[in-house]
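call fold(seq) -> tokens
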Amino acid sequence: MSGDSLSEAVGIDRAAEEALARAGVHSVKDLADAEPDSLAMASGIPIDRIREWQQRARRVGARSRGNPIVAGWTIAVAGLLVAALVGWVMMAIGAARVHRAEQVRTAAESRLQVALDFAATQAIDAVRAARLALARENWGNAQSELSRADQLVTLMERIAPDGKRAAVSDIRERLGKLQQAVGNRSRDVTDQLDRFEAALDDLRQQEPTS
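ret:
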């Protein structure tokens, strides 16, 4: 994230970004670590605005270090899959245990479905936070919230059962278009948000497939 343009990551205008660059600030990390008084003098930007942007930069930097929700669920899901696979193989050794092996597989898929629904719900929360940021014309915060949604969609791609992979691929495509619309400050960004949120909600309501 520290390599992204300040105008996109923090939501400042291009003229201010150029003034910060002349003062030696070229990244989100540079902005977060700068001494506000010195930076205000070097750039000619009021110190109150500098401090506000630094708060945004620190929030963006915190998100870029990784979403603990995604990391925790990824580890949990990986452990679940390994345990389910080992259990399935052991149960399938004897013909009399085949039925039990099928029960283990079904239980594992059920837990994956719970994880998928949880990730979709968290992504919807991020979309709604982005919607509020856009209502305040805070494009930088909107992009940060969509970055959180992006991490959750990545988790969904890792754990989606075969019957839901197509739906998750559609969600990924819609998210890409939405992020592009926010980056370009397009007029149809609200419609893009609506379509993305609807796709997430549809995924939660789909019945599990065998």
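DSSP finds ten helices and no strands in the chain.
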